[in-house]
């Protein structure tokens, strides 16, 4: 039974990719060294050949002078020593001529020189100076021609050497480009093998936070650590979906199961308080009042919890134009009774006649801020509400007098179920969700909520939202 092939670990894959990327570079270094070695050997061989040809040319020029001198001397003195000396010079010249003519591309000039040498060799023992002078002059002239031919050959071979070096350089440049491109392709392939699963992991992580819970079904292919992380994210997404389903079921049942008995309790407390079922003693009336207050508090807390759950499920705001004064006055009217009970007054400063926002989310922000200012504000004081533009933002300030909030607690109060140390002055005990709802609504609208310091109030909660100017 064959075992399935396990994907390589991230470290092994990185090392393998590094080694694969080094292969073209190694080939490039080997090709560069080989080309340089070939050019160097060719240059050395040409240099040695050129030096040898130059030396032969100089030696032949010297031998021509020696031949002419020894032949002329022999024609006058007629000694055996001069005869042998002339023959030796002629023999040496012929050997050098044969070596030069092997590389010289002018065979006719070499044949003519060979013929003149043979003519001199046949006649120098018997002829006089006047008869030998034309032959010697012809040898000297042809030697000059040979010297020029040799220098021309050396120049041609130098040009060939330069052309060979340029060709090798061009070939090496193309090989360098090809191998560098191949290395780049290998690097891109290796990086794609790593970034592709990372992108899938990023998609998985983002899908976990989306309300639609549309988790991708494709498995992560790549190094072992990334595939294992993908499976763990898949398990986490499944677990979060189960918990979300349980939360929704719990809240749905809680809203149904709590509202019915709660309504019955409130109706029963109302009947008892109105004494429709019979007179109550003062002690009984006090108990009924406590029960009625507790039922009202439980009803408010339940509504806040369900409202916060509904807010968490809202994924995208529905933006439209709204009349600012109308939106604000509707909120003030809903809170008019609670404000009158504590003798609080609204002081409004509205500098934006129309705003582009989600009416439901903006109303939730305003309701919670007014309720917070009414509950924690000083009795008989003002509640300042300001709606104004600032740069590219819409600024909503709701301020009141009361107990200032310490700087170290301000950010924490916008977290769910977090309450401050200040005392509420209304009959409802807070759940710690009001400012959290404000922060979440502001976040959905693309803004933020924070507590700021102002010179006209003790506490000011500011909501900063993107400002959209109405086109005329």
TrEMBL record:
Gene3D superfamilies: 1.10.287.130, 6.10.340.10, Histidine kinase-like ATPase, C-terminal domain. The chain crosses the membrane at residues 12-30. The keyword Signal does not apply. The keyword Transferase applies. It catalyses: ATP + protein L-histidine = ADP + protein N-phospho-L-histidine. Coiled coil: none annotated. InterPro entries: BphY/WalK/GraS-like (IPR050351), HATPase_C_sf (IPR036890), HATPase_dom (IPR003594), His_kinase_dom (IPR005467), HisK_dim/P_dom (IPR003661), HisK_dim/P_sf (IPR036097), Sig_transdc_His_kin-like_C (IPR004358). Keywords: ATP-binding, Kinase, Membrane, Nucleotide-binding, Phosphoprotein, Transferase, Transmembrane, Transmembrane helix, Two-component regulatory system. It is an enzyme of class 2 (transferase). SMART domains: HATPase_c, HisKA. This is histidine kinase. It comes from Rheinheimera marina.
